[in-house]
Amino acid sequence: MSVKPGLFISLDGVDGAGKSTHLEWLITQIQAQGIEVVATREPGGTPLGEQLRELLLHQAMEVKTEALLMFAARNEHLSQVIEPALAEGKWVVCDRFSDASFAYQGGGRQLGVEAMATLENWVHPHRQPDRTWLFDVPLAVAQERLQHAREPDRFEQEAQAFFQRTREAYLLRAQLHPQRIHVIDGHRSIDAIRHELSQGLNQLFKRYHEPL
Ligand code: ADP
Ligand code: TYD
User: Fold this and answer.
1) Alpha helices, DSSP H only, in 32-148?
2) Whose CA is nearest to atom 6 of ligand 2?
3) Nearest-CA residue for atom 8 of ligand 1
4) What is the pLDDT of residues 54-81, one digit of tens each?
């Protein structure tokens, strides 16, 4: 008997926009429907990917190297974790995916959209999340929230202009893919955001349960 493939959800946004705050809650909501969920993250999600994450977050490197390693980790992640889970009917909830490369490497690091599109087309020409929630807040809010966070990594140490470019690249991507990417105004209460996410989840459950 063929298994109905699971859905792929990603959460994204500049550091401090608030996505991690909703991750566990989202997973619980999906599990409450009796659906098995694989929770994972990028860069990371596999043993090699987690090693690459350590390097990416803490080791200085050329900008192109950084982009290539993001996609190298992603390639492992897709083939070892994401694709098998979806094929088994599990849902995958991923803390960041390729939109982060378009935003941070394409925008923040100024490698541009074309270079990212080339890597994306090579690594996952036929796979995109079924839904991406892009958390967006004014930069001042994100920075203020990060002040209270732990030791900053290589990205979190970047200047304001870097995050401005990153945020703009995210929003451009959302404009280009309005069906998939839903922008969440993260400058609201956690409850208000959850209400919106919960409506979005209900749409996904409906889509998933519809007969093929
Ligand atoms: P991200 O994962 O996007 O970097 P986090 O979810 O870790 O961001 O949130 C960063 C900080 O902001 C945390 O201290 C968190 O408690 C706080 N935070 C998250 N969402 C909100 C919100 N809607 N209102 C106020 N503070 C928030
Ligand atoms: P994240 O796990 O969100 O960090 P934290 O646990 O501190 O919230 O993401 C790690 C960093 O990696 C984040 O600053 C964004 C960056 N990143 C990229 O630059 N490009 C990418 O493709 C991905 C997936 C992440």
Assistant:
1) 47-58, 63-77, 83-87, 98-100, 113-123, 139-147
2) 20
3) 18
4) 999 999 999 999 999 999 999 999 999 9
Tell me which residue has its CA closest to atom 7 in ligand 1.
20
* Distance of alpha carbon 131 from alpha carbon 40, whole angstroms: 15
Tell me if 63 is assigned to a ligand binding site.
no
Is pLDDT of 1 > 70?
A: no
Find the residues whose C-beta lies inside 6 A of ligand 1: 13, 15-21, 135, 145, 148, 186, 189-190, 193
Handedness of CA 63, 68, 71, 72 (dihedral sign): negative
Which residue has 């732990």 as its token pair? 150
Pairwise CA distance, residues 32 & 22, whole Å: 15
Tokens of 15: 């550091």
Q: How many CB atoms lie within 10 A of CB 104?
A: 27
Q: Which residue has the tokens 């069906």?
A: 179
C-alpha span between 164 and 130 (Å, rounded): 27
